[in-house]
Amino acid sequence: MRLSPSLAASWRALAVAGALAGVIFAGATPSRAADAFSDQQKAGIQKIIHDYLVSNPEVIREAIEALKKREEAAELASREKAVVEHGEKIVHSANQAVVGNPDGDVTLVEFFDYNCGYCKQSLASVAKLIETDPKLRVVLKDFPILGADSVDVAHIATAARMQLSPAKFWEFHKKLLSTRGHIGKQQAIAAAKEVGADIDRLEKDADSAETQAALKEVAALAEQLKFDGTPSWVIGKEAVVGGLPFAQLKAKVDNIRKCGKATC
User: Fold this and answer.
1) Which residues of 187-207 are buried (b: 16+ CB within 10 A; e: fewer)?
2) Does residue 180 surpass a pLDDT of 80?
3) pLDDT at position 71, please?
4) Domains in the chain and their CATH numbers?
5) Is-above-0.85 flag for pTM?
6) CA 208 to CA 222: how far, in whole Å?
7) DSSP letters spanning 131-194
8) Confidence of residue 33 (pLDDT cuts 50, 70, 90)
9) CB neighbours of 188 closer than 8 A, spacing ≥ 6?
């Protein structure tokens, strides 16, 4: 899972401290850095830095903010590269559910966990997008990261996808994801039964090599995309972690059509 804001800030502060320490030895190679200045010179430089930071503490905040922006830019670039390299499996793999218009002009990919609260909240936005945009293609990738029950549910959901039509699977998906409270294997089987799934076949397929391979593929893609939470999204070349409200999702879809990018 992601670092807490306080821990992330601590790491950034350490990075800033390291950068400031590097100033002392600017121009010296690592092997000669210790001999670049005398002890008296080092003490003098350290005092200058200390006094400057005490007098101008906002510099630390500015440095942390600059570092954060640099890290975010690097993360976005890394994810975009992964989207390009693995685009076919992300968008057109046989190991995924496709709802909405299968021939749509824009594809929105969601990596989700059936026990993820933010995924439950995002369901309404995804459903509204499908209802209001007849040209939208939505890919659902089961990414169970919230414990053993989520893994069990993912096995049942993958098996359900193998035998249900896209429309029936979408009905199953909405029913299961809108279930209140914690979801386990029995809730998944009950939801599948309600939409007409063959339960004997379902339980057999849930333990199949095909199901294992499908979930491993999603996990591998998530690792390449550096997805550490759910929901996570891919649209165009952009990959985003975290819940997005309807307006933001719609804007990204509209932007793809407008300029070919999720963010114009």
Assistant:
1) bbbebbeebebeeeebeebbe
2) yes
3) 76
4) 5-82 (no CATH), 88-259 (3.40.30.10)
5) no
6) 22
7) HH-TTEEEEEEE---S-HHHHHHHHHHHHHHHHS-HHHHHHHHHHHHT--S---HHHHHHHHHH
8) low
9) 114, 152, 153, 156, 157, 160, 176
